[in-house]
Give the backbone structure.
Amino acid sequence: MLPLGRAHLWLKLTRSQGIARRYFVVNGFDGALTMLGLIMGFRVSGSSDLAMVLNACLGAAIALGVSGVSSAYVSEAAERRKALNELEEAMAKDLGGSAHGHAARWVPLLIALVNGAAPLFISLFILSPLWLAQAGIILPWPPLLAALGCAFFAVFLLGVFLGRVSGQHWLHSGLQTLLIALITAGLVSLLG
């Protein structure tokens, strides 16, 4: 069986698809709103030094990614180990070499990667206009404004994804999450 097939089997066996989905959305949302807050903060403060903005935002994105991977791995590994121990006790059998044993070892890593990758990649997407501007590429909007647009778009897309998962209309769900981003931006703008 191919690695992706095995990963799908382990997620299904442990009923962890929903957990991975939730971690993707929750931490993706954290990444998007963190970048939105940072960029709004720089915009409100009048800072236009792209290198400083990029370094601060990239530092936060890396920290969110590392935090996501490590926190999810430690907690999920403990939960999977506990579930495997309970199953082994119920069956009075060592399941270390079984599909359940493999799942107990690998699912925490898979979930941790989702948990860390979501805020990191969403943050990198939001920062892309800043990199383009720093590389000398002329954008139709000022770089911080373009990055804010990317942040709003990312949050909207997370809402669309949630709408698809829940069976809610995608536009309603997307607008709901976009409203949260707009409130966040409004609160940060009060600092100025």
Q: What stands out?
A: Residues 3-187 form one domain. The chain is about 85% helix and 0% strand.
